[in-house]
Design a protein that fits this description.
It contains ten helices and no strands. By secondary structure, it is mainly α.
Length: about 200
């Protein structure tokens, strides 16, 4: 199984977390004040630890890890309202006129929804990559839990934040029914693996 698409899914979800965190950290809800570069400048150790945990859990090669740099989420760049709309999947709606997306209240809603979505997708991507790489739950869960802990802090800097346990519960109800339902066509190794990671995450978190 090609690990590159799985790595892209993980890095994209983490990129969404970073952009949302940068918007929240600016504190003004004005997009010109948002700086991903400044946000990450004081969080380089967190980012390094995140990427190392991702590498170990997914057993990604250096070539696959280089995709993180190619995507550009972890370098300085602007965050347009369209990005927040993307990360929140349009759940909050598309404003009319569209410029209203840049107003504080729509931005707050997109950030709240986007953080929930992208943290949940980050967890799903990590578990999927771990299973594909043959990383057993007893080996991979600690790294996944630490990745979630740091990512939650990035998503809601300086706030009473969403916890890894919250993300685990959201992931379980959003992703596992389709995989673990008796009528699912998922292979037995996959259903057993997701069940095992779910149980181990519940125990650890």
């Amino acid at each position: 199984m090609d690990p590159a698409p799985m790595a892209r899914a993980v890095f994209a979800a983490l990129g969404g977390v970073v952009e949302i965190g940068a918007v929240r950290a600016a504190g003004t809800w004005l997009l010109p004040d948002v700086s991903v570069g400044a946000f990450l400048e004081t969080r380089q150790e967190d980012l390094r630890r995140l990427l190392e945990d991702i590498r170990v859990v997914g057993r990604f090669s250096a070539e696959v890890m280089a995709i993180a740099d190619e995507l550009g989420y972890f370098a300085g760049h602007e965050v347009p309202a369209a990005s927040l709309l993307l990360w929140s999947e349009g759940i909050a709606g598309v404003a009319d006129p569209v410029e209203r997306l840049e107003e504080p209240e729509p931005m707050r809603r997109m950030c709240r929804i986007g953080a929930d979505l992208q943290l949940t997708r980050l967890l799903h991507g990590l578990v999927t990559a771990a299973l594909a790489a043959g990383t057993e739950p007893g080996e991979g869960t600690a790294g996944i839990a630490e990745t979630l802990r740091v990512a939650c802090g990035l998503a809601e800097p300086g706030r009473e934040r969403i916890t890894p346990a919250d993300v685990h519960r959201m992931w379980r109800v959003a992703h596992l029914p389709g995989i673990l339902h008796p009528a699912s066509d998922a292979p037995e190794w996959g259903t057993a693996g997701y069940r095992a990671y779910d149980a181990e995450l519940e125990r650890l978190l």
